[in-house]
Amino acid sequence: MDALLILSGLLLMLFGLVWLIMLAFGSSLFWGLGSLFPPLTLVYVVRHWRIARKAVALSALGCIPLVVGFVLLASNDPVRFEAIASLRWLTPAPIKPNELAIELRGQLNGEPFAPQQGELIDGVLSLREGQEFFAQRAVNVHLPPITNGAVRLNVLPTDAQPLPEVEISWLLPEHDLPEARRLNHGYTLYLDLQPLAPNKMTGDFHLVLPAQFNTTLSGKIELFTNRLRYIDGKVDAYFDSRDTLSYVIEDYLQRRYASRAVRLDKLPAVSFPASSFELEVEALVNDQPQQITLLLSKTEALGWGVQGDQYARFAEPAVVSPAPAPASSVSSTTTPAPARSSVDRRLRFSLERLQRTPEQYNNLLIRVTTAHGSTAQGRFAGINANGRIVIRREISGPGEASYILRPDEISQIELLEP
């Protein structure tokens, strides 16, 4: 109703203005041309009031439904009214910077290819150009199972099958569905990707397809390894993805049952955009199966969360300095101190101690902050032959992510378990 009143008021004012210009042209050509400019229009109204008063009255009549419509809008939808009154809709939407540093040169199907999205999830490397459901142009490479964190692959046209399947697709302007081509031999592919905390991979990508495909790509790429997004090292709870929901639910269950031994089964399929979901969740909590119905909702203040969540956050482990030993006289016979039944290895934990005795910290939860400000958290999996720290973290779906970090790029390391 409010929108109808506002629209009718604007139409009446517009008809009144058009009528006024027609009356001005009826008076003379000079006044008609002058009425096209607002200052001279007012002069014409003053000089020829008896002629112009009917058109002015029609425009003034349009102000009544316009004002009433805005009053109703302000009472029914104050947020929308404030957005209209502040004229924010006149300013162009800011252009979001690309989340990934992708620097590819070349062409796909004879056209320049500049992907903004990249993923390596469930063994499929995907590069997409365009934000719509169907990509404007895309490359998908179905990779063999990844045994460690890094991905290295070198395929030549003469290599024997089986080889990774490469798929390219493009959307023509006059078509609703993209065209696609697949091949599993006769191409050149070189990959050298390294993990980048917390959930990315980065490295070299070179792809040359047979001449009839007009596709040659070469450069640096950056890929997400799951559908989580991070802000300042923390998971962005506002991002719409099933991985975000899994993270929120797992965090909720850990705090609800006061245990980090929570393993969440794969969530059912969900459709975005949405503001709430009711999900049947199955999980193992302390090796005991649990089936729970949860209502998740998205708020402007916190992003995605579980309704009714009032459980306290886990406290970060505090480092307690040992009390100084009391002074005692020196005797020739020293009595050995009794052995401690349990040792909190967090007290004197450091990168040097981890490198010196890595076997003491196997499979313990650690958090690493790099010199670039990125954060990686997972289970310590040892030190490889090159002296690099290996951290494993389970991800949604099959498999796990491995972070391999050089000691010189670590600025801070924390042990999160005793």
* Alpha-carbon distance between the two ends: 64 Å
Find the count of extended strands (DSSP E, 2+ residues).
Answer: 22
Mean pLDDT: 83
N to C succession of SSEs? HHHHHEEEEEEEEEEEEEHEEEEHEEEEE
Description:
- This protein has helices at 2-27, 29-34, 38-47, 49-76, 78-85, 242-256, 351-356; strands at 103-108, 111-112, 117-121, 124-129, 137-142, 151-155, 165-170, 179-183, 188-196, 200-208, 216-224, 230-231, 234-235, 262-264, 276-285, 288-299, 303-306, 365-370, 375-383, 389-394, 400-405, 410-415.
- With 418 residues, the chain is an alpha+beta fold.
- The protein folds into 4 domains: 2-90, no CATH class; 103-224, no CATH class; 230-306, Nuclear Transport Factor 2, Chain: A; 351-415, Roll (SH3 type barrels).
- A 6-stranded antiparallel β-sheet has the order 2-1-11-10-9-6, with no helix packed on it. Strands 3-4-5-7-8 form a 5-stranded antiparallel β-sheet, with no helix packed on it.
- The longest helix has 28 residues, at 49-76.
- Residues 317-342 have low confidence and may be disordered.
Topology summary:
Layout: H1 2-27, H2 29-34, H3 38-47, H4 49-76, H5 78-85, E1 103-108, E2 111-112, E3 117-121, E4 124-129, E5 137-142, E6 151-155, E7 165-170, E8 179-183, E9 188-196, E10 200-208, E11 216-224, E12 230-231, E13 234-235, H6 242-256, E14 262-264, E15 276-285, E16 288-299, E17 303-306, H7 351-356, E18 365-370, E19 375-383, E20 389-394, E21 400-405, E22 410-415
Antiparallel strand pairs: 1-2, 1-11, 3-4, 4-5, 5-7, 6-9, 7-8, 9-10, 10-11, 12-13, 14-15, 15-16, 16-17, 18-19, 18-22, 19-20, 20-21
Helix pairs in contact: 1-4, 3-4, 4-5
